[in-house]
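Work Package 3 (structural annotation) set out to generate three-dimensional models for the target panel prioritized at the project kickoff. During this period the team completed the workflow that converts sequence records into discrete structure tokens, so that structures can be stored uniformly alongside our sequence database. As a representative example, we reproduce one entry of 410 residues exactly as it appears in the project archive.
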Amino acid sequence: MSLDLDRPEDPSNIIDPRCHCTRDALQALLADEPCPCAVLDLDAFDHNLALFEKGIAGTGKTVRIGTKSLRVPGLIKRCVDRPGFKGAFLFHPAEIAYLHDTFKIQDFVLAYPVMSMAEADACARAVARDPETKVAVMVDAIPHLHLLEAAAAKARAQLRVLIDVDMAITFLGQLAGVLRSPLRTPEQVVNLAKHVKDFPHLEFAGIMGYEAQEAGVGDGSFLFRRMKAASRKQVTSRRTAVVQALAAEGFHCDIVNGGGSGCFPDTAKEACVTEITVGSGLFKSYIFDPINHLKDFIPSMFMALRVVREPRPGIVTCYSGGYACSGSYLPPRIVSPEGCSVTSREGFGEVQTPVQFDPAKLQLKLGDIVVCRFAKAGEPMERFNEVIAISGGNVVNRFPTYRGAGLWLG
């Protein structure tokens, strides 16, 4: 079924001025689909992919896809296949076997330490099964090394380790960033790198540092802009000092990973960085709207709710929809029809979401869809078995999510 996607004058039909699809088009395409459903504007997704590649062109860096920000294996593969991308930045060990066996991906960084033998075994087995597969696991403490060594020795495999360096800063007396690694100085990082030598089945591969205070914070506030500018100076200095200190002790960093979607061009300018992790910018979830580096990126992931009741004039009720994201309360946002909002009494609900509107300006009836955006990118995909991909006015694919593939990833 091919649809005319020319945008009409009626603002209630527009999802986003830059999107390649309208609500009327989705209404027709999703007529027989159960809702809520996740809908991907594949043209917008590919547009965003190209912007990441353009942003690092000429820097000598590569891009690693952050899987937690997609959680759709087919889209992860779509990224890894691009010339500017290299490997996957994982959030759970179970991803390794699935992505290797399904898509033959062989380059992995596990972004979080493991502290169970089952998870360490999953990392070691992947290398034992395929010697061409590279698995680098994040560490920031000696107990992490003991566990990985035990698993690697058992599997007769060689595991790579990355040392996680804290990139949070203090700004105006407050913590800016996230609470990850306890390692903040070159001396602390070098000390742990020296301990890696004590474990025959482990190999030092480099460092990672996540500047969350830049990657996920908007530029709308003067205070935030000042914080981010201060952070960039400190992060660049800290990361450079760590790499230099390691080199002075004979440790070569094959991988120096940093970034995030919201600061990828800045991180790419650092001489010592070898690769940048990105992810959320591909879906352009709404918390990334205020970030200047992503102003040309287009929202690509949406949720469609269906109207199932009309309890009173000016209010319709959609089935389900209460897919809030973690952290502070971050519910979805209605983006089409324009002028709609959830009620303050119920909000986005567990099994129903009342939507209010001005009946003098808009009519919603049973069976109509209401289009929403999520606050975060990959996390909401845990609520769906598949993503319906639309391109050129057609449903062109149905991508299973990790959930749809039967993976439980915490």
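The chain has two domains: 11-41+296-400, 71-278.
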